[in-house]
Each structure stands twice: as structure tokens, then as C-alpha cells.
Amino acid sequence: MQKITSTPRITTLIVIASLFFSLQGIAQDEEKFQFWDHVRFGGGIGLSFGNNFFSGTLAPSAIYEFNDQFGLGVGLNGTYNSLKDTYTSTIVGGSLISLFNVIPQVQLSAELERLYASRTYDSSIVFVQAPETNFWYTGLFLGAGYRTNNVTAGVRYDVLYKENQSFYASAWVPFVRVYF
Questions:
Q1: What's the number of domains the chain is made of?
Q2: Against a cut of 0.85, is the pTM above it?
Q3: Partner of 6 at 20 to 30 A CA spacing, among 25, 47, 81, 93?
Q4: Which residue did the predictor score with more confidence, 72 or 22?
Q5: What is the DSSP letter of 93?
Q6: Alpha helices in the chain (DSSP H)
């Protein structure tokens, strides 16, 4: 009786499987490379100075451009405010943003923002009841801006704005976005 060995078949099967998985890995690397070709990084930086007032904001973000008209992304936000002898506040959070270019020069946006604010008041202020205030704020901004190359400047409106619950002075907020 002749004994059949399956070693050549197993070796062939292992070689074919290895090639298959190697080629699949190369294809996935190409897909990742193409994915990153559509990602743009940028965001905004804000500085404000006034009578004993300072505010600084850093808001990096990343947008995936599906095509020349539509992009979707995420952002982070960090802000520090100080009014001398009155209060300081720290605001941190994130956002989801969608961008739609009607034409190359006009960009519409929708941004859902969730921020945590921590305010500490100067204890010598009589009209303030609480020495510290911590709260979450959600904003839904609809905006429009003029776009040229990598820069868009415009205004956005918070449709969820409530004067007594927001740390924004108004529902209307100007913006400048830069993406590379």
C-alpha cells in the first residue's frame, strides 16, 4: 500500500495564503495612503485683549474631504479667559464639523460643539453668588464664509444659544479657519 503525504499540498497552501495576506496588506497600505491624501489639518487661533481682559483660544481640527465640495471632521478647543480682579475661566472640549463648498469661494458649515467651562470668580466681588462655576455647554452652529485658497472667514450662528447659559456674548460668532 502506498502512503500519501500531504506535505507538498500544505506547503503550497501556506505559500498561497502568505501571498494573499501580503498582497492584502499592501492594498490596505495604499488605501491608507489615499485616505491621508484627503485629510486636511488646521483650525483656528484666537486672541482678544481689552480693558484688563485677555482671552486666548487654540482650536486644532482635521477635515476629511470627500470631494471638492464636502468635508467632515473633528476638532478640539481650548480657551483661557481672564478679567483682572473679576474672574478667570478655562474652556475645553471638542466638535464635529461639516463643510460644504457651494462654489469654491462660498463655504457653508454646520458644527456641533460640546465644551466644559470652569469659571472662578474673585471672592471680593459682592454681586457674584458662587465663587466657582463649572458647566457643560452644547452649541450647534450654522455658518457661512468667504473662502480663498486655504483660508475661510465668515460668521456662524448658534441655534441653541441661551443668553444666561452660554459663555459666548452673542449667538453670532465670527470665525477664521485655515486648513492645509
A1: 2
A2: no
A3: 25
A4: 72
A5: E
A6: 7-37
- For residue 105 the three cell numbers come to 469661494
Residues 103 and 134 in one domain: yes
**DSSP one-letter code for 3:** P
Where do the H-state alpha helices sit in 38-107? none
| 7 vs 149: which has the higher pLDDT | 149
C-alpha cell at 108: 457653508
Round to whole Å and give the CA distance between 81 and 54.
Answer: 6
- List the beta bridge partners of residue 108: 100, 144
65-124 pLDDT, tens digit each: 999 999 999 999 999 999 888 889 999 999 999 999 999 999 999 999 999 999 888 766
Domain residues for the domain of 141 are 40-179
Q: Are strands 39-50 and 151-158 parallel, antiparallel or unpaired?
A: unpaired
